[in-house]
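Example S7 (structure tokens).
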């Protein structure tokens, strides 16, 4: 495992380290291409088609074909041109030097990022293939290899990719700050340097230059793209800025837009970044946003059918989830200072003796507020009758209308029966086989929930269920949930003893 002290820290060191990475490929892909190269009945086009299923192998061949090009030599922009330049004998020799392993043995971060690239290529072909039919090779290979510098980083330092994904996508930390902490330099600058070292297609380099140091045109286009409902006004703004209009119609922008769509969808379809790229694609194609989104979703589904693999996340999976679902799940955050102060104050009220509450409903209202203060935005408190044959909602927060009137029969649920038999606390995760009753599943969609029995004198009198929008909990939140309900138990006991 690498540590901050063993990782490169300067641009030159990073370029040398990543340039030396020998990206591995899946054994079955390696063997398939070996047989194709050895078959003298295959044309170059047929061999290229055999390689297309392995983007990493395609990168190996393109890098080799463009290595040490002279100043006047033309880059190989497609795999077929690269194979012609290399020749079959040299291609076979190069293939023999590429490490192969079973899919599960390859770094997960590498396989995940390659899947995003395949999704981007499918988006580019579906959205721009007909419009740029004469340039389809450049569109296909440019969109597929745009993230190739990240493949090397994910293969050599998978933990860095996972940290970046978790902190930037999940935790919403500023990308520049995280990248300087992890890499010592902005990621876009590193990617551009590798693209230039590997002599990848010019459209890829142009895209990284735009993102790294010349975002002015992109930002102006994004501002115009926001007004998607008024295409005539958009056209007037473009006509008033000829330089922007010329830039926007460049074919090379297709690969940048396709990768923007794929990367932003990887995190979540409903996020602001995804919407920005969708609007920009709509402006580029002169399509209204609903029509553009329909096309994008269709291409995502087609990509999933072609390239989805066990253990990997494909954005098309999110199309059947709640619209605000994101990947990776938002990182749990510790309790803010103000909320922690409010939680302590409310718990202090629960612990006062004699009890300051005039009725149980008022007491439970304070408990609900305390649970909300500790970061639990969906809360349900259920009171059990004396025979444990009925559970009735007493307090609810953040739930669908009608949750406060919910009545349950515990006998229909092994989980509720277990919680009523004896005081118990449960922390349910996505992989937990235990299931809530359907009515509670509908109220608490998502994988992460906290459940706890509330007992007085050893007898369970209430159940509490809470979550943070279905996402994972910080340990401090789970601890605050348990302590709040301990305070509830003491408050109920004090309420029974209060002076009449």
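Recovered sequence:
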């Amino acid at each position: 495992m690498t540590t901050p002290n063993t990782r490169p820290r300067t641009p030159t060191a990073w370029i040398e380290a990543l340039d030396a990475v020998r990206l591995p490929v899946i054994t079955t892909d390696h063997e398939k291409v070996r047989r194709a190269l050895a078959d003298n009945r295959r044309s170059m086009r047929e061999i290229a088609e055999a390689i297309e299923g392995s983007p990493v192998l395609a990168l190996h061949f393109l890098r080799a074909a463009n290595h040490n090009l002279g100043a006047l030599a033309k880059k190989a922009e497609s795999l077929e041109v690269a194979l012609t330049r290399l020749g079959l004998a040299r291609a076979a020799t190069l293939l023999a030097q590429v490490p192969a392993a079973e899919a599960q043995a390859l770094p997960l971060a590498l396989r995940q990022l390659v899947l995003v690239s395949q999704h981007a290529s499918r988006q580019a072909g579906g959205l721009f293939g007909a419009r740029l039919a004469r340039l389809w090779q450049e569109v296909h290979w440019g969109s597929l290899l745009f993230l190739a510098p990240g493949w090397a980083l994910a293969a050599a330092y998978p933990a860095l990719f996972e940290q970046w994904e978790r902190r930037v996508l999940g935790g919403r930390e500023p990308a520049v700050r995280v990248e300087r902490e992890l890499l010592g330099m902005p990621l876009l600058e590193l990617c551009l340097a590798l693209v230039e070292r590997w002599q990848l297609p010019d459209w890829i380099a142009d895209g990284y230059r735009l993102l790294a140091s010349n975002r002015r045109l992109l930002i102006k286009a994004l501002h115009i793209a926001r007004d998607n409902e008024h295409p005539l006004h958009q056209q007037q703004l473009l006509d008033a800025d000829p330089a922007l209009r010329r830039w926007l119609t460049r074919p090379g922008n297709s690969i940048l837009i396709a990768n923007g769509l794929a990367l932003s969808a990887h995190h979540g379809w409903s996020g602001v970044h995804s919407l920005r790229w969708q609007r920009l694609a709509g402006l580029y194609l002169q399509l209204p946003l609903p029509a553009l989104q329909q096309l994008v979703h269709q291409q995502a589904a087609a990509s999933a059918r072609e390239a989805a693999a066990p253990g990997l996340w494909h954005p098309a999976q999110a199309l059947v989830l709640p619209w605000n679902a994101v990947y990776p799940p938002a990182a749990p955050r510790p309790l803010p200072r103000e909320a922690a102060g409010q939680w302590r104050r409310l718990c202090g009220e629960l612990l006062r003796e004699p009890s300051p509450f005039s009725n149980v409903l008022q007491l439970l209202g304070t408990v609900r507020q305390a649970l909300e203060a500790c970061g639990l935005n969906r809360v349900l408190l259920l009171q059990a009758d004396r025979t444990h044959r009925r559970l009735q909602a007493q307090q609810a927060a953040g739930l669908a209308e009608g949750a406060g009137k919910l009545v349950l029969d515990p006998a229909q649920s092994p989980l509720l029966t277990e919680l009523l038999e004896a005081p118990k606390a449960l922390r349910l995760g996505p992989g937990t086989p235990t299931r809530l009753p359907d009515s509670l599943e509908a109220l608490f969609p998502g994988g992460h929930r906290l459940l706890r029995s509330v007992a007085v004198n050893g007898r369970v009198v209430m159940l509490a269920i809470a979550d943070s929008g279905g996402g994972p909990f910080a340990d401090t939140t789970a601890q605050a949930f348990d302590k709040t309900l301990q305070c509830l138990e003491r408050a109920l006991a004090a309420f029974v003893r209060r002076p009449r």
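Notes on this example. The radius of gyration is 29 Å.
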